[in-house]
Amino acid sequence: MRFTIDRRLLIKGSILGLGALSIPGAAQILGARGFSHGVASGEPGMDSVLLWTRYVGSGDSKLRAEVATDPAFTKVVSGGEVTARADADHTAKITVTGLQPGQRYFYRFIAPDGAISRIGRTRTLPQGDVSRFGIGLFSCSNMPFGFFNAYGHAAVRDDIDLVIHCGDYLYEYDRGHYPSLEDAVPGRIIEPANEMVTLADYRLRYASYRLDPDLQALHAAFPMIAQWDDHELTNDAYKDGAENHQPDMEGEWAVRKAAAQKVYREWMPVSDAMYDSFQIGTLATIFRPETRITARNKQLSVGEAVAGRGDLAKALADFRDGAWSMQDRTLMGAEQEKWLYDGLGKSKKDGTAWQILAQQVIMGYGRFPTNAADWVPTNSPAIVRTRLAGAVAASQAGLPYNMDSWDGYPAARNRLYDAALAADADLVVLSGDSHNAWGYNLGERGPGQGDSKHRVGVEFAGHSVTSPGFEAYAKGVPPADIARALRAVNPGMAFCDTSQRGYVSLEVTPQQVAGSWHFMKDIRTRTTDLAGTHRMTVQRGAKLLQNA
Question: DSSP character for 534?
């Protein structure tokens, strides 16, 4: 059921109401009082949903949450009291219950002084047979690179029931580092100016991002299922460290990791569950794992593996057949793998049409073509040219180019594939991380990794909200040429776009999942205009993407 309402109640301050604007600085953020960062909802159930807000008072502040069936709040049906605690950065979360399945609701918070938050809209998950369900998929929103136009575009849609954020909700870098000061969009200033490392750093970075009106509009319009990727902590994180963490200068990894997790749970509409699943009636089960810091082994490095080896071809072969193929390498760990594999089987046994895995990194197998070394200009930084040349050589040896994705953990991926096949699951994988748009037919395994003839499922991998993709490095090369070359050497790749930003929307029905990659016309100016959309579908039982 859909509702037609006055959207000004929901998107006040969104693209429809404001032009280009600057994000306030640290002094303004820290000095803000009252309901400073809007509202959000998340992790809905059939009769419950988690509500979030931030209210800054002189200390702890007791708030009243109200849930109603109408935006005028003439019929309040649920709510409760919750404290915006000073020791939680003045954030407040409450799970309200007693709601009806598959219904839209409106919610707000009321402060002790009578101040009222903005109105949010949310929805419970449906029960029983479901004819249609809409999902929005987002990832990789680096504020200085551009405006969150993808959020603004999605926020005014009536056909989305739930949004999923696969991670990189924000970035940790210091001001002037990814992007450079020259490449940063004017007015898109992050706080603090330094890289976020401490508890206070993480809090201030979230506070600066969450002032963005389009991000606030998205949260106010839909419930969200969210999971961190790496940049909510720091780049290329794993259980024992991260590429962008230097213990000698930034302290113990465990301390930084704990601070990042604490602040994420303060600022996001999420529970404390590390991984979870959500049931969409008989239509779909959505599994939300944690693939970063619970059990992920450190990423392998092809460069380190071949360093000092005279015979490059042999060194690559040894790496491929040795470290890369180790059976005990994992992203999730044995306990979580069992949870997921059992869940796939139970979902299918219970008669659920689709098994949707909403996770962080690309699952499809990706290698570079031999001409990829020609994609970057000769005046590119030496490190870029060196890494690309190495990736090409690795691909010629049958190795993928991204060791931070599932490609770096082939044995773990094979276990997941085997579990999906054993369950006869209609698997749909949702991913982010790469900044580019990909559609994959899943099933291909690496050299020596076993049978690759079975179709396992499909993958809709979303492009970024703002973070740059291939186009930032392959300047001057037509994106269509890059896409054509990548697809030619990757049989499982059904679609790719390596040059545009945006988001994915999915329409799930009992017989089909249709996914649309929406490409924003621009991110350096504030606009919801689209440059285009590419749509693909998978029929139940087919496990194969087709152009729509």
Answer: E
The average pLDDT across 40-67 equals: 97
Return the pLDDT at 7.
33
CA Rg value for the chain? 23
Read off the tokens for 500: 């545009």
Nearest residue to 45 (alpha-carbon basis) of 91, 95, 90, 88: 95
* Residue 495 burial (C-beta neighbours within 10 Å; 0-12, 13-18, 19+): buried
Residue-wise pLDDT for 58-117, tens only, equals 999 999 999 999 999 999 999 999 999 999 999 999 999 999 999 999 999 999 999 999
Identity of residue 340: L
| Residues in the chain, overall count | 548
CB atoms within 10 A of CB 186: 9
Contact assessment for residue 351 and residue 449, using Cβ atoms and an 8 Å cutoff:
no
Cis peptide before 179 (omega within 30 of 0): yes
Looking at residue 16, its pLDDT comes to 34
Omega before residue 400 within 30° of 0, cis: no
- Cα gap 326→154, rounded to integer Å: 42
What is the helix (H) or strand (E) element at residue 278, kind and residue range? strand 276-280
Model pLDDT for residues 506-522, shown as the tens digit of each residue: 999 999 999 999 999 99
Amino acid letter, 23:
I
Which of these, 165, 425, 366, lies nearest to 416 by C-alpha position? 425
Q: How many angstroms separate the CA atoms of 36 and 479, rounded?
A: 41
Q: Report angle CA 158, 121, 430 to the nearest 5 degrees.
A: 60
CA distances from 225 to 5, 83, 101 (A): 24, 23, 17
pTM (2 decimals)? Answer: 0.94
DSSP for 132-157, written as a single string? -EEEEEE----GGG---HHHHHHHT-
